[in-house]
């Protein structure tokens, strides 16, 4: 089988897997939240797969100084997935935009996507939507999803034409139920904007304030995730359990993998069939290993 060329993008990706995980105590007293299992994979695999689906191959993992060695042990240098990983420590959880400041020299004036390490997004059309966001020459792209409890998130409102009007962080009285998910795409001005963000009353740099810079200049694209999409923030016990149940249901009933970096790498042409078979073999006699071997033997890459 001839391997198709891999998707290429100049965009770099940041996977932010820091924080103390206090909402998941006592599970996170001795382990990073993003290393907890979501069904058959560590949580970090899901946002990692999302970045890779956008065609991104240069990825920085940011975590706490204590947890960073565990991420290196799990993920290695990225070659098993046909990507390159860089690792940086976040000394204290001072807000999402801090990630861009930590990665300043590595970004090297490149556009960048940022994924939060406890977010899972699933949709049939997701890859196409992500790749569209990754190649937009200017501005920023965020994704909005309807939720029952918008007061927990950054909330975006729209006018009658569907254009974003406002973004408010954790509003007491939300003007809509459209929450901004933990996935963001920015042009190469993101670092300049991040440096202009001031700490909020919570003492953190807020990603909503960063997004507002793009909104105010009219360059913020808000793509709404509709029916057929699932977004899960696995940062509390209930949503962590729901995320695991969701992945189990899709994989058991449809036989399709959710959140597997190895499968994404193969489908996009980052690795070939032999590399995927070798990865599947390392999974031993697990169901995940069986499904990966099946993909290697029966699926034609689309990259």
From TrEMBL:
Domain Nucleotidyl transferase: 12-248
Entry keywords, A to Z: Magnesium, Metal-binding, Nucleotidyltransferase, Transferase
EC number(s) on file: 2.7.7.24
Xref: InterPro entries: G1P_thy_trans_s (IPR005907), NTP_transferase_dom (IPR005835), Nucleotide-diphossugar_trans (IPR029044)
GO molecular function, one term: metal ion binding
Catalytic reaction list: dTTP + alpha-D-glucose 1-phosphate + H(+) = dTDP-alpha-D-glucose + diphosphate
Cofactors: Mg(2+)
Coiled coil: none
PANTHER family listed in its UniProt record: GLUCOSE-1-PHOSPHATE THYMIDYLYLTRANSFERASE, GLUCOSE-1-PHOSPHATE THYMIDYLYLTRANSFERASE 1
Purpose of the protein: Catalyzes the formation of dTDP-glucose, from dTTP and glucose 1-phosphate, as well as its pyrophosphorolysis.
Family label: Belongs to the glucose-1-phosphate thymidylyltransferase family.
Name this polypeptide is given: Glucose-1-phosphate thymidylyltransferase
